Amino acid sequence: MSGLRVAGLRVVDHRGHPVTGPTDLYAAPGEVVAVTGPSGVGKSTLLAGLLDALPAGLRRAGGTVTWQGTTVAPGAAARRWRHRCVGLVGQDPAGALHPLRRVEELVAGTAREPGRSAAALLAVGLDPAGYAHRRAHQLSGGQAQRVAVARALAADPPLLVLDEPTSALDAAARDLVATAVRARRGNPRYVTLVVSHDHDLLTTLADRTVHLGPVAAPPRGGHAAVTAPGAPVLTVRGLTAAATPDGPPLLRNASLDLAAGEFVAVLGPSGSGKSTLLRALAGLHPVLRGTARAGAVDLPWPVRRRDREQLRALQLVGQRPTDALNPAHRVRTALRRPLRGLRGLDRAGIVTGTAALLRQVDLDPALAGHRPGQLSGGQRQRVALARALAAGPDVLLADEITAALDAATAATVLDLLDRLRGDGLAVLAATHDPAVAARADRVLALDDHHLVPRKDRTDAR
């Protein structure tokens, strides 16, 4: 039978414990098939398993993969098949881009026809003239995601595998990516697999949907009551920052006030400077000029100049938890450092606090013994959130905090933030998610490099 067929695929960890499966899946020529399910159920592991590209510590324990009627054996045969037939966009597209190569090299390196690389960049809304000479560190999260998609499309692969391809994108960019992928639909030369939590995207893109794991309950309507904002905890005046040291300002004279218990969302298209704003406030991105105060204390811009109390007061959950979590450290180690170093807890308090933090973010405390590579993207994102909360911050800087989460888990995280806001936590969130913006007390937008109030709170995308 032509197309892609997966029969009884099972993946286990190094102890033989099941991770996902057994799973059956079929995608006919010309089809776009979606794979959905709650965060942590094993969607990304299924993709890696069928491609025989599992990370260390996981192995395929059973099942077969058949492509165009021929069984693909694990090992060398699978590697040749991937090289010849498969285009892959993983959950960490920025991490997959070679840091020393320019965009034009990255995309042209996979293109099978002259001129296809420029067409692929244009298809995802990136002007080759403006982006061809940039390297990965000069791209926003959304831009890196689109470069990764363009790179895969330029190869014109018979099998395209996309893992959360629009998680960091605004609505316009998301629609461009969807249109580029949809162009494959109905063409018998192609098969496409898409993992996504974006229900609207899958409704318009997929021919069929394969659901893994239990069907999650729909998110609860409304949210917990939050007390009125209290005293100012963050005051920013005239913040100006560039994307690169020698580039023009990306943020110009940004000013904002954040009160205890307040939730402020920041919207804007991909590359507008949302992540730069949060990273600058955290002391992780150079600032050309401007001031910031945490309560009544001036904040130095470079993080290395901040004392323990200043570090505790502002905590960042970045867009890429893979960058924030040391791959060699277990979850308990990631949480122990802020519990001990910023909160001053003893050993017993650290053990209790670690379990409590994991439960707070809806994770099993047993995951404390896992390393990041053993976690799903959504689980890593929640561990990064737990690590930030471990410091007991006054301000949480949240960059696309729900991007890797299914709707039910995202609602759980937002409910948690609402409860913490009742205790005085202030949240400044960069987002494309309407559900996040709907929780906010105020919405700001980055418009022409300036931070301005947004009157329409309903259209976060």
Helix content: 25-40%
**Reading side by side through the largest sheet, how are the strands ordered?**
15-16-17-12-18-19
Mean pLDDT, as a whole number?
Answer: 88
How much strand?
A: 15-25%
Distance between the termini: 41 Å
Structural class category: alpha/beta
Number of strands: 19
Overall morphology: globular
Low-confidence stretches: 457-461
Counted by DSSP, the helix tally is 17
User: What integer value in Å does the Rg equal?
Assistant: 22 Å
Major beta-sheet overview: 6 strands, mixed
Commentary on this structure:
- The protein has 461 residues and is α/β, with parallel strands linked by helices.
- It has 17 helices and 19 strands.
- β10 and β11 form a beta hairpin.
- It is globular.
Summarize the structure.
This protein is α/β, with parallel strands linked by helices and 461 residues long. The chain is 33% helix and 25% strand. The longest helix has 16 residues, at 407-422.
Please name the defining characteristics of this protein:
alpha/beta, 19 strands, 6-stranded mixed beta sheet, single chain
Describe the secondary structure blueprint for this structure.
Elements: E1 4-13, E2 18-27, E3 32-36, H1 43-50, E4 58-67, E5 70-71, H2 76-85, E6 86-89, H3 93-96, H4 103-108, H5 116-123, H6 128-131, H7 141-154, E7 159-163, H8 171-182, E8 191-195, H9 199-205, E9 208-211, E10 232-242, E11 249-259, E12 263-267, H10 274-281, E13 289-294, E14 297-298, H11 308-313, E15 314-317, H12 321-324, H13 331-341, H14 347-360, H15 377-390, E16 395-399, H16 407-422, E17 426-430, H17 434-439, E18 442-447, E19 450-453
Parallel strand pairs: 3-8, 3-9, 6-7, 7-8, 12-17, 12-18, 15-16, 16-17
Antiparallel strand pairs: 1-2, 1-4, 4-5, 10-11, 10-13, 13-14, 18-19
